[in-house]
Design a protein that fits this description.
Length: 716
Amino acid sequence: MYAVTTWDPDGNGPQPELLIVGGNFTIAGDIAANYIVAWDGSNWQPLGSGMNNIVYALMVYNGQLIAGGSFTTAGGVSTSRIARWNGSSWQAFGSGMNSQVNALTVYDSNLIAGGAFSTAGGVTVNYITRWDGSNWQPLGSGMSTESAPPPYVSGLTVYNGSLIAGGNFTTAGGVAANYIARWDGNNWQALGSGMDYYVKPLTVYNGELVAGGYFTTAGGISANYIARWNGSSWQGLGSGMDNWVRTLTVYNNKLIAGGWFTTAGGNSAGRIACWDGSNWQTLGSGMDGNVLALAVYNGELIAGGSFTTAGGVAVNKIARWDGSGWQGLGNGIGGTSPRLEALTVYNGELIAGGKFTTAGGVSTNNIGRWNGDGWQALGSGMNGSVYALAVYNGELIAAGLFTTAGGVSANRIARWDGSSWQGLGSGVDAWVMALTVYNGQLIVGGWFTTAGGVSANGIARWDGSSWQALGSGMNSYVHALTVYNGELIAGGWFTTAGGVSANRIARWDGSSWQSLGSGMGGVDYIDVWSLTVYNGQLIAGGDFTTAGGVDANYIASWDGSSWQALGSGMDGSVLALTVYNGQLIAGGYFYTAGGVSTNYIARWDGSNWQALGSGTNLTVRALTVYNGELIAGGEFTTAGGKGSLYWGRWGVPEVYGGDLNHDCGVNELDLGLFAERWLEDDCEYTGFCGEADSNYDRRVDFLDYAAAANNWLMGD
């Protein structure tokens, strides 16, 4: 979070004042909010469709909200780094700037913008400009410097009737002015000898101008990262800070400073501190990450930045201080760094693994469970990403990049018995990317060379008590595993399996590795990322353009003897596969499937590719079926145009267990489907149980049939 301000949409009208937040994020609470969002005191609200890139500065001008940054569109309108919001839509300021806007203020009834731009509205302005209501105009000849990086203006305020600008420059209007200068309406002037390095935030406190930044001297005197100007000379504020001051404001008659520092006035201060006119004081225990923006809203101090805790309280990039303690604002704000990598079902709950610290506001640490109503943790989770999930011997198996699970040593793989985590022997020595069950054993694939201390190149098996190799393994990564026609199938980046040539895909018959035709090919990067079984055929998805020498763009099917394309395939990577309602579902990093716009997820009915609504706004990495719905996970924040943070669901929820045809009832039609799949869909053989495996024991048998019969007609 880089910028925060307040804005009242109707001035003195009945609408409440809003807190406006800008930065580098795409979600706020549980809504999609592209780089800008409003908080009404209780909930987050989007401002149209937001921007296409970072917001660095916010200001209110003539009753409208102004945003500046590195974006080039706002609400889908071309805006070139600066835009205004009138309460219902975004509008441009002429042709905007040619580079980033860092700071905004209002001076002499003009909107002032500073940044890294050299032109505004096509006019040369050199890093600072004013909007007179209809056009951008220069302020003298602007700024310049002989040092690197190039000049920019990063801070603006008004003091004693003059406009004050700070940044990286050594001249203003041709006058020597080291990193800070004032504009009296006609000319630029220096403020003493200025600073020895960059100036960023500026504010006014107790009748003095206060500047923060990366400097250590101001006016030739010691001033560590913060200084005050009384109208004629510079002074320090105590002994200052031990690192960069990035933001300033005034709250409860005290000066508040935030930044990268950990001490203020020689005292411990976790990135935020207050100055009472003579001494620095802390605000609780501060933050665990940098504070980059400050404002006052509803009588409380608002702080934003890159932190995840404030005063020891879990918050997400934004927090409020009520005078005695820190609290969060809803679920805070986030972005595309978190992602969901794996999905499965265990004990009637949906299990999600990936790279995330919370799920539904609950601390989860890379793995969580959904019971249909809310998210819950599985113990204290993992200390690293979870990439794969499976069920084996009645236990949930999670694998990835972690070394502990629930605080217990578990090298890249662990098992959950319903109440606690345990390791599987000594685990493996590097990443695990894929899991499946074959012949009563757990199969593990990834980028490792040993499992339980035994040499196992990229693939290994766990029999419940010890690790064993599968032949000599692969010569590179294994990314996907499944079972087809009684054989174990492995896909990845390898070119040999068990010493046999096998281009990115191979089969294990229980004793040796064999190829599947000539495997996959392509021009550049070639990989198999996902595998499943559909309509009696093996389906492979990944990064390839040929399969068995046949053109097959990113997805192909194997019938036991040869490879075939699925229509014209995709225009990008296929990372996840599953079967839902008799259709093959593919997710990944593609925009089209079979030439149809699909946006990261698509379905194949056996003949053609179709979209699932408007798809998602970013990559789909995991797929499964839970309670009659298709579940997708990945990096996206919207699904079907709705806010949907990293996971989404498609279809009609199952009202009663056993509703296989999703008609909201359990009757003879569903029992007929069970009969078709009974024993034939043994997961150990085909690799796919369908939804008939209602107790998730990897078999379709009498227990599943009995459960459905028990609900016969009750689901009407």
